[in-house]
Design goal:
By secondary structure, the chain is of the alpha/beta class. The protein is built from eleven helices and 18 strands. Helices cover 32% and strands 24% of the residues. α2 runs parallel beside α9 and α3 (89-115) crosses α9. Bound molecules: flavin-adenine dinucleotide.
Length: 434
């Protein structure tokens, strides 16, 4: 499989192009090999380099490091995700376990940013779970009860307050959570690449084609060579299934997003000059929409089973139209052609939305499947899987391992059909919110 992304991601295009890109050109041997250089792989490499300063560590990616989902997401570092209330204490306890992991994710990113003085447009602005449908008040009230029980600061807001804070009259009801951060995902992941320690060799544009394990050695086959390693960490997230990793537990989903150019002073005035904000939908397939620090509007309103992985320009154009419509619905006063770029990205889902974090065989480890929380959780899991693979334990590992484990998916073709049917149902439910 060739992984080639579109060049349309605004976050990545905001950055200076990188130089000194090294490709795998010959056979190599190492102590540690990490496949995938997004938040997970980069964090794993950083931690391994610290733990094993004299060992040889290779981090390799099929494309440019950080230019998969890690550089093309919506930039919400989340403390909570929506639920519509729990009927049992057990469910509440499970939700708390999730938020404990999110909290650790935020902490690990904060620490990284502080330690390396990273500038990534960090804004502790919180986020809104918003809907145009007043009947969704019931869901938000239930969510509010959960948040109150767990001590998360939040407010329920009506249309009047929302139009003031967001600059659109589209939403009738929302729950605002105080925690959670908005940031520039491209700047964050670039910083992780820039500070990679010297004992990590980063190889890019080199796709793992197949791998096997004989005795104690894992052999990984690439177009231009073989890498033999003692220990390996798979950090390929949406591509885990393709490499035969935990195939019955994860499933790739393709998301597309668009970003406008910065609004002019005049345009910004017509929407009431709101401060930076981020909205997540109450209905799962509704739009995620953000006003960025420099007055650009980001919208993501598609999620689909899409094969092949690489989306053609004409297919991407169709999604851009949907996103243009989504912006127009919310901001009818803005001109039609303000979308500057559109892109797609691949994430990995599990059936019960729980993450993968485990040793799958002697010396073989995997971390992934964070749904919409990979910025913090991916960074945390990368670091902690490196520690686990080094036979050490931490409180963080205990917290991670206390979560619900991913549940089993039925085999193909039932899986694809089931996921497609579910997405169609969710899309219909969220029709007004796209
Ligand atoms: C549009 C969009 C919006 C999102 N919004 C948010 C959000 O607001 N907040 C949030 O927290 N999360 C969000 N996410 C999810 C988040 O981006 C991911 O969870 C996170 O990036 C996962 O990081 P990762 O390092 O595990 O995987 P990735 O960033 O996907 O990195 C995996 C890497 O593995 C490489 N790879 C794959 N196969 C091979 C192979 N065979 N050989 C070598 N390398 C390989 C890929 O090239 C890729 O670079 C969003 C994702 C998308 C696409």
């Amino acid at each position: 499989m060739q992984i080639v992304n579109d060049n349309g991601c605004s976050w990545i295009n905001d950055l200076d192009p990188r130089s000194n890109i090294k490709v795998l050109e010959k056979n190599k041997e190492c102590d540690w090999l990490i496949i995938g250089a997004g938040y997970t792989g980069l964090s794993a490499a950083r931690k391994l380099a610290q733990l094993h300063p004299n060992q040889k560590i290779i981090l390799i990616d099929a494309q440019l490091a950080g230019e998969g989902a890690s550089g093309r997401n919506s930039g919400y570092l989340v403390d909570t995700t929506l639920n519509d209330g729990f009927t049992s204490n057990k469910d509440l306890e499970n939700y708390k376990k999730k938020t404990d992991i999110y909290e650790l994710g935020i902490k690990v990113i904060k620490k990284f940013i502080k330690e390396h003085q990273v500038e990534c447009d960090w804004n502790d602005s919180g986020k809104f779970f918003a809907s145009s449908k007043t009947e969704d008040e019931k869901i938000l009230n239930n969510f509010s009860k959960t948040l109150s029980k767990l001590g998360f600061r939040h407010d329920l807001l009506d249309n009047k307050e929302l139009s003031k804070r967001l600059g659109t009259k589209f939403y009738n009801i929302a729950l605002y959570t105080k925690g959670g951060v908005l940031l520039h995902p491209g700047k964050l992941v670039r910083a992780m690449i820039d500070i990679l320690p010297n004992n990590v060799e980063l190889l890019e544009n080199s796709s793992l084609i197949k791998w096997n394990k004989t005795n104690d050695v894992v052999s990984c086959y690439f177009k231009n060579g073989i890498i033999k390693t003692r220990k390996i960490i798979f950090a390929t997230n949406g591509f885990l299934k393709f490499l035969g990793i935990k195939s019955n537990y994860n499933f790739p989903i393709t998301l597309t997003a668009s970003m406008t150019r910065p609004l002019t002073d005049q345009e910004f005035k017509t929407i009431g000059e709101p401060k930076e904000w981020g909205v997540l939908p109450v209905r799962p397939m509704g739009a995620t929409i953000r006003m960025t620090k420099n007055r650009r509007i980001l919208i993501r309103n598609t999620a689909e089973v899409y094969n092949p992985y690489q989306m053609s320009q004409s297919e991407l154009d169709k999604r851009t139209l949907k996103q243009k419509f989504g912006i127009k619905k919310r901001f009818p006063q803005l001109p039609d052609n303000i979308i500057q770029s559109s892109w797609s990205g691949i994430v990995s889902r599990t059936r019960n939305s729980s993450q993968i974090f485990e040793k799958i065989d002697e010396n073989i480890f995997v971390a992934g499947c964070y749904n919409g929380s990979g910025i913090g959780v991916g960074t945390l899991f990368g670091e902690q899987i490196a520690i686990k693979a080094s036979n050490e334990n931490t409180k963080e590992i205990e917290t991670i391992e206390a979560r619900n484990k991913p549940t089993w998916f039925p085999p193909e073709p039932f899986l694809s059909l089931g996921v497609k049917a579910r997405l169609i149902y969710e899309r219909m439910r969220a029709k007004s919110e796209i």
